[in-house]
Amino acid sequence: MHKLDDLDLKLLYELTRDGSISVPNLSKKMGINASVLYSRIKRLTKKNIIKKFTVVVDEAQLGIGVKATIGINRDPKLKDAIHKQLLQTPEIVSISEVTGRFDIMVGVHAENLEKLHNIVIDKIGKIEGIQSTETFVELQKTDKEPSYLVSK
Q: Taking the model in full, what pTM does it have?
């Protein structure tokens, strides 16, 4: 774990709010010399604390009307083959091995409930070694900033 000071945390906070902000504008906003910010960003990137700069896409405008999480129980002997086939399913956006009543939780994006049903039945359900699934449809989502990013 890396030790971060208040300036690092404030910098991370600002960058997570708008990763496209220019360093000169960020310098004005934070009241910190731009050269200091450049070196901090470079150090945080080199330490892999900042893994990448990215964009947030309005997925509804791309036709994604339903998001769901699917709990999956699988045959442990077929773990790798199942994982490989899940990775090849384009509608699956995340795969997590978990503890609890499921072996795997996958995030799925679909155009509508009918398409989600087809993904669960025709794609995931037909993978050899999948023993059972349970689908949780997202009704509403509220993103919350991690406590380490709360501006002080």
A: 0.81
